[in-house]
Design a protein that fits this description.
alpha/beta, 13 helices, 10 strands, 4-stranded parallel beta sheet
Length: 287
């Protein structure tokens, strides 16, 4: 059975996760789905993000994926737990083997990008003061604060919303003076809230493309933590620990791209992240 690993993002940022996954697991097949027609998700309500994310997950399941990674911090923060606890514990008339077993019992799984970063953060900070730069929705959800508290209750977490950063990346202005200005502004605000921060998590998958601007803005000695590398390592470990899923996920080394918006527009923006031409198909999400 051809069962690719699905990667979902509201837009393009998840392509940074896909890059690291393909680097870590080059033999695996992947499908990337961007809900670009309804992006961004960052300022949308929990209910709306959940519904949009549920539609995307079910669509990826219908395309043959048994394992889906939410390569979007907003979706991971606002929708992952509900999908895991509610949707995977239900039967489906359109997905699966048609039996009365739940999707969970049939081996369908959904994972996020927050947990892998959280699990490693205690090994990276010495001051035990951590900053998170992310979208407004991710910061407001306090998902990083809550998850880090479960693993490392001694760590103090401070969030800073960076509403323009993703737009700067998608506009192809990551190396511009404007990018330097807005990155410096938010980093300064974050460190003013807690000067003891020695580690900053990039809580949006767009932000690695702003690394040059971020490095200019941070004082010496502060560690920057992009997510892709840790998500890729975590998935590799997950497949080793779950041999049934490891066998289900196919190994043809292929990747397919879908977007809910214009394929031409997707190809143009994706080149900013991937630096290569790709084939893209339009898709409508399942209700």
């Amino acid at each position: 059975m051809n069962s690719p690993i699905g990667i979902f993002d509201s837009g393009y940022g998840g392509l940074t996760i896909l890059q690291q996954l393909r680097k870590q697991l080059p033999e695996r097949d992947f499908i990337y789905l961007g809900d670009n027609a309804r992006a961004p998700y960052g300022s949308r309500s929990f209910d709306v993000v959940y519904e949009f994310t549920r539609q995307a997950v079910m669509t990826l399941f219908s395309l043959g994926c048994r394992l889906v990674i939410l390569g979007c911090n907003t979706a991971s923060a606002k929708a992952l737990r509900t999908i895991q606890q509610n949707d995977l514990t239900q039967c489906s008339d359109t997905i699966g083997d048609g039996s009365d077993r739940t999707l969970l019992e049939q081996g369908y799984r959904v994972l996020g990008v927050i947990r892998p970063t959280v699990e490693i953060i205690g090994q990276l900070t010495e001051s035990r003061h951590v900053g998170v730069v992310a979208t407004e929705g991710t910061v407001r959800s306090e998902s990083y604060n809550l998850e880090i508290a479960k693993f490392y209750p001694d760590i103090q977490v401070t969030g800073q919303a960076c509403p323009l950063w993703a737009a700067i990346v998608e506009a192809g202005e990551s190396e511009s003076e404007g990018a330097d200005f807005f990155v410096r502004k938010r980093i300064t605000q974050l460190l003013a809230k807690d000067p003891l921060i020695d580690t900053i998590i990039l809580g949006c998958t767009h932000y690695p493309l702003l690394m040059n601007a971020i490095n200019k803005a941070i004082p010496q000695g502060i560690r920057i933590v992009p997510q892709g590398e840790y998500v890729a390592r975590s998935l590799d470990d997950y497949l080793r620990r779950h041999p049934d899923m490891d066998r289900l996920c196919s190994t043809g080394g292929t990747v397919r791209f879908y977007t809910t918006e214009s394929p031409e527009r997707f190809k143009e923006c994706a080149s900013i992240f991937l630096h290569t031409d790709i084939d893209v198909e339009h898709i409508n999400l399942s209700a």
